[in-house]
Amino acid sequence: MSIRIKDCLDNHEAYVATLTTMPDKELAKKLDLVHIQMEIAEQKTNTAALELLEIWHHQIIEARIFKAENRIADAPNEMELAIADIETVEAQSEQRQEILKDLALPGRPASPKIKKPQDAESQLPLF
Prior knowledge:
Blueprint (H helix, E strand, L loop, with lengths): L2 H8 L1 H9 L3 H20 L3 H23 L8 H26 L24
């Protein structure tokens, strides 16, 4: 038994768990690629590669079934997460601005002004 096949069998659960985090479109694409590779392996009578590809095929199908049965949503990609973060920050900023507007009294500015000392002698010397 080759090292790769042994590794796939030993870490079967971890690999399936990793596959379940992928979008279903990506899993379908992986499955198509495995089918193509299996055809090539059959043509070249490469039994070791065919055995490994059958394990991969089984793992991908198992991951897709697990996702469907447990209604696991596709994990968002990095770009979707970044956009969601930006939208969250903008929404929070808008909420803060609304709160500040509500707290401001009529005739009074929303933010207090800093009072400057009247005479320079009241400041401590720098040296």
